[in-house]
Amino acid sequence: MPVRIEDSSFEQGIALLCQNMERPGTGNVHFESAGVEQKITPLAETYLSRVVQELIHNAYKHSSAWHVWVRFLWQPGLLVIEVEDDGTGFSKVPEFISRLKKKYNTLKMRSEAIGAVIHFSQGKSGLLAKVEYSIKERYS
Questions:
Q1: Can you tell me whether residue 67 is helix, strand or coil?
Q2: How many whole angstroms separate alpha carbon 35 and alpha carbon 72?
Q3: pLDDT of residue 140
Q4: What is residue 25's DSSP assignment?
Q5: What are the b/e assignments for 66-79, b being 16+ CB within 10 Å?
Q6: Over the stretch 48-86, which tens digit does the pLDDT of each residue have?
Q7: Which end of the chain is more exposed for a tag (fewer CB within 10 A), N or C?
Q8: Fold adopted by 10-134
Q9: In what order do the strands lie in the sheet with 67-75?
């Protein structure tokens, strides 16, 4: 399960996850956030944490990334999470993206289970995954 310190926020938990997934000397995870954090359901916290964790793991495993950027953008009623790597393991990123779009994997299953959508595209030098989670009407 994702690391969670009592009385910490979801965002703080993800920042800690990023810190714990760093590989000193071989892999850096950079976390940044913009906007005001909003409360989301415990199930959404768990699934989104797992999605971020898997995307970071995949960046190291499959694309030989040195750097992974995890970005949170909090907008009214919406959380956008971007995970981007500088991996070189996939010399044909468009071909890899096409395979990801066709594949029904745990990233898509977790996203769909909470009503989120995940998109893959070419980043600046590697893969960019973008998760959009609508917060409206999900937490009472």
A1: strand
A2: 8
A3: 44
A4: T
A5: bebbbbbebeeeeb
A6: 999 999 999 988 888 788 999 999 999 999 999 999 999
A7: C
A8: Heat Shock Protein 90 (3.30.565)
A9: 28-34, 67-75, 78-85, 127-134, 117-122
Instruction: Assess contact for 45 and 1: CB atoms under 8 A.
Output: no
Q: Which residue has the tokens 């009407």?
A: 137
pLDDT digits (tens, 9 = 90+) for 6-50: 678 999 999 999 999 998 888 899 999 999 999 999 999 999 999
Q: How far apart are CA 71 and CA 82, in angstroms?
A: 5
> Judging by beta carbons within 10 Å of its beta carbon (0-12, 13-18, 19+), is residue 42 exposed, middle or buried?
exposed
Instruction: Please state the pTM of the whole predicted model.
Output: 0.85
Q: What is the pLDDT of residue 2?
A: 54
Distance between CA atoms of 51 and 49, rounded to whole angstroms?
A: 5
